[in-house]
Write a structure and sequence with these properties.
CATH architecture of the largest domain: Clam
Radius of gyration: 25 Å
Distance between the termini: 98 Å
CATH superfamily of the largest domain: Lipoprotein localisation LolA/LolB/LppX
Strand order of the largest sheet: 6-5-4-3-2-1-13-12-11-10-9-8-7
CATH class of the largest domain: Mainly Beta
CATH topology of the largest domain: outer membrane lipoprotein receptor (LolB), chain A
Bound molecules: zinc ion
Strand content: 35-45%
Length: about 475
């Protein structure tokens, strides 16, 4: 009897011994207890999240010859300083190409304020979830976040091996579970991060090839997959512990939110909605309104819808015309769907969006998640015509465009207006035909010629209203 009790007690103790290591032991092994600030740098590849050529294609790769994170764990702040170069050529998919093929891109976060630096200006970042995720998924950030969350250490099996796991998160931004090997080194993190298309987007980050720098352990390989696609892949070559990291929110940062909504009349009943990074259009039909583009997310689209209703009272906004799937252009479709507005998008996108919208959105539930509505779609082929007898609005697919396989222009034949996203952006006024023309713009021109579109005015999704001569010159044509 006594023996039996001892054995039973021993059996009970065994699993306890197996995870006797506490978070304190993990912190010691990783050297996290010594780290107040850290700077680490390397090089690798960056992938443009949500910018594929087709709904199921991998996200486009860019070169990342310089990658440096400076983190102050005490103040919860981080600067991400990168140099981005062209990736695979010709580029397929979206993502902002680096100007002149090589561009420095800096972003930062301090507490709940995130920003991006472009030239001398700092702009508020669209959301801080990704930046918070990057900060706290840094190798020592994981340990510090788990310590702050007072996470218990539990065991789990990954690929047949037993690992110690801890959990932590940041309200409204992400939730994460990290696992450590028998030497108490961080091996991976499974997380969900708030995303305007997916709601909760799953991310797996893997850490390997540990070396000792400044007396602390640091993985020299960090790879991440987001929603099942590669999103980051870096090799770390230098780590400095406790370097100066006095990170401050830039003084000249503009305020966030939905941004300015500037309604500009482009023709009778046709409004160009500018004022932000992405424009929209409102087109008045007999008894309803068509909206072109629901970009970014709830903030922008709610502000746009409000202005449209004020400008065109008494007519419901029935349909939103989506130029293409890239997340910055489709991130506000959920907000439109939450108000019962039907989404017109390329047929291949419908299944993708239905699956994405069926996912959970628990981290930072948006208007769609809260509405309980189910998005309605118009599935587009190469051409779709909206008409009520008095006005005609055509959507044409830019067949063969590498930017995205479901990229549409919106054409108003009577008004001779063309709206175009990304294949042409009116950011600079040209005085002569462009000498180098990318595939996306060249293909736009070929499609305009093929479809024989008679255009006078271009209302681009990026940039300001211009005459057709500008698009012609950007395409390398004589105006
Ligand atoms: Zn795009």
């Amino acid at each position: 009897m006594r023996l039996h009790v001892t054995l039973a007690a021993g059996l009970l103790i065994l699993p306890t011994l197996a995870h006797a290591d506490t978070l304190g032991d993990i912190a010691k092994a990783m050297g996290a207890d010594k780290v107040k600030t850290i700077e680490y740098s390397g090089a690798g590849n960056l992938y443009a999240v949500g910018q594929p050529e087709t709904p199921t294609a991998a996200w486009p790769r860019f070169g990342l010859p310089e990658y440096k994170l400076t983190i102050n764990y005490g103040t919860g702040s981080m600067i991400q300083d990168t140099v981005v170069t062209f990736g695979d050529q010709p580029a397929r998919g979206g993502g902002r190409p680096p100007s002149n093929g090589r561009e420095q891109r800096v972003s930062g976060i301090s507490g709940d304020t995130g920003w991006n630096v472009q030239g001398p200006n700092a702009n508020p970042s669209r959301g801080t979830a990704g930046l918070k995720h990057a900060l706290w998924l840094s190798p020592h950030g994981v340990v510090k976040a788990a310590l702050a969350a007072k996470s218990p250490v539990t065991m789990r099996s990954v690929g047949g091996k037993r690992f110690k796991t801890v959990s932590f998160g940041s309200k409204g931004a992400f939730q994460a579970t990290a696992w450590f090997d028998k030497n108490n080194l961080l091996r991976g993190v499974d997380s969900i991060v708030a995303n305007p298309v997916y709601g909760d987007m799953p991310v797996r980050t893997v850490y390997s090839d540990y070396k000792t720098f400044d007396g602390v352990k640091f993985p020299t390989k960090i790879k991440a997959m987001s929603a099942g696609y590669p999103s980051l892949d870096v090799t770390i070559s230098a780590v400095t512990v406790n370097a100066a990291a006095d990170i401050k929110v830039p003084e000249n940062m503009r305020r966030g939110g939905g941004g300015r909504v500037a309604m500009q009349k482009a023709a009778d009943g046709v409004w160009f909605i500018a004022g932000g990074s992405h424009n929209s259009l409102a087109i008045e039909m007999k008894d309803h309104v068509l909206l072109v583009e629901a970009p970014l997310g709830d903030g922008r689209v709610k502000a746009v819808l409000k202005e449209v209703r004020k400008t065109i009272p008494g007519k419901p906004i029935r349909t939103v015309l989506n130029t293409h799937l890239h997340f910055d252009h489709s991130g506000g479709l959920r907000a439109a769907a939450s108000e019962g507005i039907t989404i017109a998008t390329f047929k291949d996108n419908v299944k993708f969006l239905q699956a994405a919208y069926a996912g959970k959105d628990t981290l930072s539930p948006d208007a769609y998640a809260k509405s309980g509505k189910k998005a309605k779609f118009i599935s587009l082929g190469d051409k779709h015509v909206f008409t009520d007898g008095s006005r005609t609005v055509e959507m044409h697919r830019l067949v063969g465009n590498y930017h995205n396989n479901g990229l549409y222009v919106i054409y108003l034949p009577k008004e001779k207006i063309l709206s175009v996203a990304d294949a042409y952006s009116a950011r600079a006024i040209l005085k002569e035909p462009a000498k180098r023309v990318g595939q996306a713009t060249k293909n736009l021109w070929d499609n305009i010629t093929r479809l024989n579109l008679d255009v006078e005015t271009v209302l681009p999704i990026h940039g300001s209203k211009v005459g057709f001569d500008q698009l012609k010159m950007a395409s390398g044509q004589q105006p």
